[in-house]
Amino acid sequence: MPSRSSIRRPLTLGLLGMAMSGSALAGGVPTLDTVIEIDYKNTLIGTASSASEGTISGDDLATRPLLRPAEVMEAVPGLIVSQHSGSGKANQYYLRGFNLDHGTDFATSLMSMPLNMPTHGHGQGYLDLQFLIPELIDRIQYRKGPLAADVGDFATAGSAAIDYKRALDTPFVDLTVGADGYRRALAAGSHRAGEGTLLHALELTGSDGPWVLNEDLSKRNALLRYSQGSRDHGWSVSAMAYASSWNATDQVPQRALASGQVSRFGNLDPTDGGKTSRYSLSYEWAKRGQNQQQRANAYVVDSSLNLWSNFTYCLNDIAANGNCNRGDQFEQVDRRQVYGGGVSQAWQMTWRGRPTELTVGLQGRFDDIGEVALNTSSKRLRTGTIRRDQVREGNLGVYVEQKIQWLEKFRSVVGLRGDAYRFDVNSDRAINSGQRNAQIASPKLALIFGPWRQTEYYLQASSGFHSNDARGVTSRINPDFRDPGFLTATERADPLVRARSYELGLRTAIVPNVQTSLALWQLDLASELLFIGDAGTTEASAPSRRRGIELANYWTPTKQLTLDVDAALSKARFRNSSPGGRLIPGSIEKTASVSATWNGSGAWSGGMRLRYFGPRPLIEDGSVNSKSSTLTNLQMTYAATQQLKLRLEVLNVFDRKVSDIDYFYESQLAGEAAPVADLHTHPAEPRTLRAAIHWSF
User: Fold this and answer.
1) Contacts (Cβ under 8 Å, ≥6 apart) of 665
2) Which of the two ends of the chain, N or C, has the fewest CB atoms closer than 10 A to its terminal CB?
3) CATH number for the domain including 521?
């Protein structure tokens, strides 16, 4: 989807990714020494490598009503963000037939820092975006599928690169209050400091939530960013600090709701919740010269999580002790430091008389995980340790990509990426300790034809991968004493799981004021990761195949009004036949959204978004499915003066009583004689009003 900023101001075209931004076109291939201006009708035509990539501007996000910070990602067409626990926990994501769980198979970065956490206490590829400050986002570049050579792990369904602004037009204070004790204060500004610019922001957020159990959310968030020059020729250093604590209302079984044992917003374990923190220091450098572009980045991250959950209530406690005195709560712990960085070089040249762009890059990352653990607990007090590990996981990636303009209306993008991994696990059970090495090569190819009559066509085939949890890579026995298979032999997981993707698409601006993209795609994954509700973990499963079609439209009927309409259909199946069925539990099949933005010449502006979240199969044979949901959010802003703006947000405008998430598994309530297989659900929040004062100075 093209950026709205391409309509409001000239767009500087660039190379995609880490080494490829800020350049223009010559004969259809990006160059590095010329800047040209184009109008919105030609946005991305002549520059994109596929029909399923795009850029979302910060201006677009400014008019988007948000319940949670991570919902900025729903600006990516077809992507759904939900939640099944407290506001401090990473969200649940859905895209291209995937239940991405908390981030597996969708790689996301912020200011060149990868945000997905491998071998995480709560899930592989854990992607916590709660620390994002939407008002500071300059742009989000997204690419679906694994075509991008500069992105490695987790980029199977796609990837997104988020960049913060380097400066603000004016300093501001934004104060928001809302239903259920919601309050947020954000102060941000920038000013010249020496030869550069210092950007600073402080955010404080609290909320009780609509839940019977007071959520007691306490979030503290801060940013300092010093920069000189621009994204393509300059440098920046950024320091970030984030900490949060909360009480959680997890999913509850349908039978408890039907009997009145628990209300719609009630809970079965009032001690669930968590606390988390993230501190980072990052550096970015770029230099643009005649016919070349260099980039480098480095980062260090310190993060921690303590998460208390109870998905089965009394099942394990009754099985072990014959009663439910303790319950089935468990604690997941993750403490780590992450070190990494990368360098890249891009050259514009002529090869056999044809314009070409050659990029090479090197990336490295090391996760020093001091503690990743799964403990049993009761009322947040540990009662036992299922597994406790120290993990050192490192990877090195190298890539090369070449773009060639073969003919006036034919160009290609060829890429090759190689990744090497080292897993070193020190487990509390020596038999589950060990080291393993793994390597994988990922070729990429895109063929682009046109444009003819403002329409361009794309054909691509690419390979990508995601890594598996290091603990599963080295484990030899089952350490879970709650499980009947306790201490039995287990099969070690493959360290790296290959994905193969194929896509056919087009992008057109043939209709005046309308931009349309259409993509037909298929993705094969060598091993599926499935969420296991009663353990709060993931496990490797059978290979899978997903197919789908995506349509995105961007329409500007007037200078004041813009409309985004997108829809996606997908089909996900295990490739191995099974008596239990081939459907992939939780896989998304249908999504659609309609967004409208009004920016009139007067004092009023606003935005509206309708999101359709289709039904999902919850077990392999399709006999149990979640219901679909449609939610509508609204934002209205009144500029009282040039400095003072008043904003009203209405979330879930029609107060739809729908689910945010659904699972189907066995659980056991106090007083039940045996476990019961049931639908477990977490409700979407009810109609919520928020009012804000925005003062710039």
Assistant:
1) 311, 312, 532, 533, 534, 677, 678, 680
2) C
3) 2.40.170.20
CB atoms within 10 A of CB 30: 27
Residue 546, number of CB atoms within 10 A of its CB: 23
Q: What is the pLDDT of residue 14?
A: 31
Q: Which residues of 428-451 are buried (b: 16+ CB within 10 A; e: fewer)?
A: eeeebbbebebebebebbbbbebb
Residue 260 per-residue DSSP state: T
| Structural domain count, the chain | 1
Amino acid at 376: T
Phi-psi region of 655 (alpha: psi -120 to 50; beta: other; left: phi over 0): left
- What is the end-to-end Cα distance of the chain in Å, rounded? 33
The pair of three-digit structure tokens given for residue 388, joined into one six-digit string: 């406790």
CB 611 within 8 A of CB 66: no
Q: According to the model, what pLDDT value does residue 566 have?
A: 96
Using the predicted structure, report yes or no on whether residue 396 has a pLDDT greater than 80. Answer: yes
DSSP 403-440: EEEEETTEEEEEEEEEEEEEEEEEESSGGG-EEEEEEE
d(CA 451, CA 448): 9
- Condensed to tens digits (0 to 9), the pLDDT of residues 560-585 reads 899 999 999 999 999 987 778 999 99
pLDDT in tens, 202-213: 999 999 999 999
Alpha carbon distance 617, 626 (integer Å)? 6
Cβ neighbours of residue 302 closer than 8 Å, sequence gap 6 or more: 277, 278, 279, 280, 336, 337, 338
Show the 3-state SS of 266-298: CCCCCCCEEEEEEEEEEEEEEEEECCEEEEEEE
Amino acid at 343: V
Sheet architecture: strand order including 98-99: 80-82, 92-95, 98-99
pTM of the model: 0.92
Q: 540 pLDDT band (50/70/90 cuts)? A: low
The phi and psi torsions of 256 (rounded to 5 degrees) equal: -70, -35
Backbone angles phi, psi at 470, to 5 degrees: -60, -30
Q: Residues 216, 263: contact at Cβ < 8 Å?
A: no
Q: Within 10 Å of residue 649's Cβ, how many Cβ atoms?
A: 21
Which two structure tokens, joined as six digits, stand for 553? 């439209």
| Residue where the block lists tokens 């090569």 | 441
Q: How many CA atoms lie within 13 A of 190 on its CB side?
A: 18
Supply 57's token pair: 């501007």
Q: How far apart are CA 272 and CA 588, in angstroms?
A: 28
pLDDT exceeds cutoff 50 at 549: yes
8 Å CB contact between 97 and 588 = yes
Quote the domain boundaries for residue 164.
5-696
* CA distances in angstroms from 211 to 217, 415, 573, 661, listed in the order given: 12, 50, 36, 16
- Whether residue 530 has pLDDT greater than 80: no
Among 418-422, 485-489, 547-551, 613-617, whose mean pLDDT is lowest?
485-489
Judged against a pLDDT cut of 60, whether residue 26 lies above it is answered with no
Strand partners, 49: none
**CB burial of residue 171 (10 Å; 0-12, 13-18, 19+):** middle
Q: What was the pLDDT predicted at 84? A: 86
